[in-house]
Amino acid sequence: xxxxxxxxxxxxxxxxxxxxxxxxxxxxxxxxxxxxxxxxxxxxxxxxxxxxxxxxxxxxxxxxxxxxxxxxxxxxxxxxxxxxxxxxxxxxxxxxxxxxxxxxxxxxxxxxxxxxxxxxxxxxxxxxxxxxxxxxxxxxxxxxxxxxxxxxxxxxxxxxxxxxxxxxxxxxxxxxxxxxxxxxxxxxxxxxxxxxxxxxxxxxxxxxxxxxxxxxxxxxxxxxxxxxxxxxxxxxxxxxxxxxxxxxxxxxxxxxxxxxxxxxxxxxxxxxxxxxxxxxxxxxxxxxxxxxxxxxxxxxxxxxxxxxxxxxxxxxxxxxxxxxxxxxxxxxxxxxxxxxxxxxxxxxxxxxxxxxxxxxxxxxxxxxxxxxxxxxxxxxxxxxxxxxxxxxxxxxxxxxxxxxxxxxxxxxxxxxxxxxxxxxxxxxxxxxxxxxxxxxxxxxxxxxxxxxxxxxxxxxxxxxxxxxxxxxxxxxxxxxxxxxxxxxxxxxxxxxxxxxxxxxxxxxxxxxxxxxxxxxxxxxxxxxxxxxxxxxxxxxxxxxxxxxxxxxxxx
Length: 555
Description:
Elements: E1 71-72, E2 79-80, E3 137-139, E4 145-147, H1 188-199, E5 204-205, E6 222-223, E7 233-235, H2 244-250, E8 256-258, E9 272-274, E10 296-298, E11 303-305, E12 312-314, H3 336-339, E13 343-345, E14 362-368, H4 371-376, H5 378-389, E15 405-411, E16 415-419, E17 428-432, E18 448-449, H6 454-467, H7 479-492, E19 496-501, H8 529-534, H9 536-551
Parallel strand pairs: 5-6, 9-13, 14-15, 14-19
Antiparallel strand pairs: 1-2, 3-4, 7-8, 10-11, 11-12, 15-16, 15-18, 16-17
Helix pairs in contact: 5-6, 7-9
Organism: Leptonychotes weddellii
Subcellular location: Cytoplasm, Cytosol
């Protein structure tokens, strides 16, 4: 079949749809191999489809609302014209295929006419055959429109005939992880200030369960009601896992800071002293726990159950007391160990070393007088400060004077011991040069009471900076100094503390000698460990001295 008139240009797809509609009014017949339209004789108008309305006496059949989507041709499944509500105007022909809009579905097939229904005009093409989920169409190589290659997303509808105006919502996307907001982190300064304002006005009651004590930066008072004051013992965490499995999963370290000799404010009373006589404090026979408010008395008060190991212990006859209707001793509030959390037991001779009460402790001040210490001004500063600090030595409660005795030693390559006995007009110096075999040259007059030898001690502290002002000795010893202090305390048969003021590396020929570690080329190399090997002798002696001090109650 030949085409009369001009030939319409080829249809070109635009984007994901099709090109603009092309008028076919000047063409008669059909395009070969197109499959778009059927053949009609010349001079006849194309028929109207069922969806375009009816021009007779029969009222038009109403179908589903028109969809903004592509329509199919009855023959090849290509796009068809959208439905019209009235007949075509004279001279108006069929336009080109409608533009396909993405994310839309095809309209449902038109409803069939009931039997016996007549319509005016020539019969139209048969109804299109397509499913409720029509795929898109693309221009084929032969010039016709056919189904698209592959599935097209977002073209389905929830149910047949349902209007769809966009793509179906997909699954919710996971929210991005929230970043740490610096403003949400509590400020340590603000936490401290809030705790001071909220916890500093009222006393902290230790008997309330589940109450966290105030911070250490808060000035507060403590009311003891059975638990120890946080001044004496404070836990790192007050939320403790209740099971071992939870503790393993949490991996939260638990520790306690214990200060049995903590200083108390003037408003708080000192711990009460409990004296159980010669028998000493009452303790558990199994775990050696001391009597406390949580011990449970049973059998009318003749025995008590340990709160730590649940061991049943007998109550001494002198400690027996009856129980009230609640199971508590009637004298519970008369005994500090049964009603308070912090108290002191008066120790007996059984708790002392060698079953002998100890002598008052002693403080020994050992001052480095080498060239480096003199030139830096450390020696003069120490001597000036010690004059005033000796008036503030620890003392027993209510005592006017301290019972602590003091002694003085200076050293560089050798050691100088000083006799500051109160009967002397001027201090005396004794020199020990054999540092390999250390001993104490004097006993009487080395450790003295400050109040008795105040004048001699002051004279000594004034003379030390002047005696060593012109020294040129740069080498010092260290381990023999510690050994000399231990020997002095051992000879005095008392505990004590050594105060060493050292300024340089002990490189003098003596036990515990160390070598200079000034070779910077060995840093960050394999030979850096040589320094540790060379220090082995000095470190081992220092470790042995530490164990000896611990055994002899020295520090």
